[in-house]
């Protein structure tokens, strides 16, 4: 009996010791892992968990930063800005245990997020067989947030792992993200890290933070809803903030250059409300990352669904496209226009190559100072001049996106309509003047007030700039 009691006590002490040792181990979030790319030229947060008061040291590229875990076990250090490095190195984290992260590069990191058109895998894109076979890029690293998960409150620990870009790892990764990163890596000559977090069929609200909703007065009711969430609140893929809490929040504050976004189909019946929600999304993410107005570029919805082919056009996508265009008033943002490469019978157009390329053009021009041979964007509406009594309107575009207006098929510019004070729309005759602005008129409208362009869901307008990039649809009457 004494031997049995002694044996039980020893077993208990052994288990207690093991439990204590396990709890003392320093741990890291999955986004900090072997094979990762660290963002160059910015402070680089490294964070994790340990025992309260435990001393933690992080060593990388000749730097060692030391701190102590707080009462809640959390700790964080910031490495000084790093220079791009294509040679792999190791990062070590030392507490009561030691973690070594190997095969680490330094370069440019972007998050790629949205619904199904961003989630759309490389293996399902145009020329998929050839593209997958050629996806061998050791200087590109991929991190994909697995599964479709939600949470009522922000989660600290997520899931995923870094992989070297090769045909096996790239085949299931975001095609848009891959083509975007491939272009950056080619033009910049530095390593590129791509973080994918996507969920097909989702609205913008689940991806938006509470702080994002609170930053836009028009979204106060949604903010109030999210503020009432408790740990046991039941949420799903459509619940405001629920996807962000589970699939984005655990990634922060991993240093990134910026984000690309392709979403909107599930909000397709909206108009100006989507403009407010885009403000909430961008402002909320920027607050979480605390990197100032980091770049945020999105894709305008492609042409899709049956076309009424009347001046009245369609609502739905027409309205949300203009809301996306209007949201460019958010500082340091941009938009890839793709009304020329959609598939009217397919909500998932397979040409993701041009989508990724057009997003990359914005980044190359705006963030990396590359002097491109062509414009980085198709023509974006700037203003309209009214000439009372002349029966016409003069449409101006932002000069940096124009580069000479023309048409893709050498025919007169299509899909323009004008209206008078009665609000009735009529097809317009279009004259391109000196390649940088237009004059629109109609014999049916003596004193035009408003002009719109590409205002139906299927619209494939032919107005482009000299670079062949399509002009964004717009409507001066849309508010």
**Shape label:** globular
Strand count, sense and barrel status of the largest sheet are: 11 strands, mixed
What is the CA–CA distance across the termini?
A: 85 Å
Could you list the spans in which at least 5 consecutive residues all have pLDDT below 50?
A: 1-22, 306-313
Q: Tell me, rounded to a whole number, the average pLDDT.
A: 92
- Count helical runs: 12
Percent of residues in helices: 10-25%
Radius of gyration: 26 Å
Which structural category fits the helices and strands? alpha/beta
The number of strands is 23
- Provide the β-strand percentage band: 25-35%
Report on this structure.
By secondary structure, the chain is of the alpha/beta class. The protein has helices at 2-24, 116-119, 128-133, 167-170, 175-188, 210-214, 220-227, 242-248, 272-289, 317-326, 352-366, 399-402, and strands at residues 37-39, 44-49, 55-60, 63-68, 74-79, 85-94, 98-114, 137-144, 162-165, 192-198, 258-262, 296-299, 333-336, 381-387, 392-397, 405-407, 416-419, 425-427, 429-433, 437-441, 450-453, 463-465, 474-475. The strands form five sheets. Strands 1, 3, 4, 6, 7, 8, 9, 10, 11, 12 and 13 form an eleven-stranded mixed sheet that branches. It has a four-stranded antiparallel sheet with strand order 14-15-20-19. The protein has a four-stranded antiparallel sheet with strand order 18-17-21-23. It is globular, with a radius of gyration of 26 Å.
